Amino acid sequence: MPSLTPTPLSALRISSHHIPPYQNFPNTSLNPYPLLIYHSVFPSSASLSARNVEAHLISVGVVKPAWRYTMYQQHHYHSTAHEFLVVVSGSAQLCFGGSVSPENKGKVLADVKKGDAMLVPAGVGHALLQDKDGGFEMVGSYPTHAERWDMCTGEDGEKGGEEWKRIKGLKWFDRDPIYGDEGPAVDLAKGS
């Protein structure tokens, strides 16, 4: 299995998004960390596969791959762990922020493709809007120190409840899931 070499940090394009709360979705309001999109963090070549993405993530040791799948069409968030997603095939339009409603002014609509990655802080609502070519798949991972991950759907009772309290207490990354001792997640931890 060929090993993956990420795009050099000096050439990596990052999108950073602070998303205000919307209805029962806290988004990034409970901690200072934004949604990060790593554009083309891996070259979109034939050698990019779920297996070698998982091997790369395991070798860095910051997150543990948990699944291979698309993204649910139901808006949801996690309260027990931050999530790291790497697109391994296809392309899609995703919504971050809890709803595509025109009233949700802070939502982020993102077009992602093979080779992109997303660091989704706990609390950020996300859902698949469109699988553009019918083959969209990601590797989903969670921090190695996370015991489990949950799925919250913005139900009444979540807002201000245990789920929101857990999010406030979650530890951020000391190392970046792709680059290790440097990289976007580390820069956020240092406040740069």
Automatic annotation (TrEMBL):
Q: Which Gene3D superfamilies match?
A: Jelly Rolls
Q: Name one Pfam family in it.
A: Cupin_1
Which SMART domains does this one have? Answer: Cupin_1
What is the protein name stated in its UniProt record? Uncharacterized protein
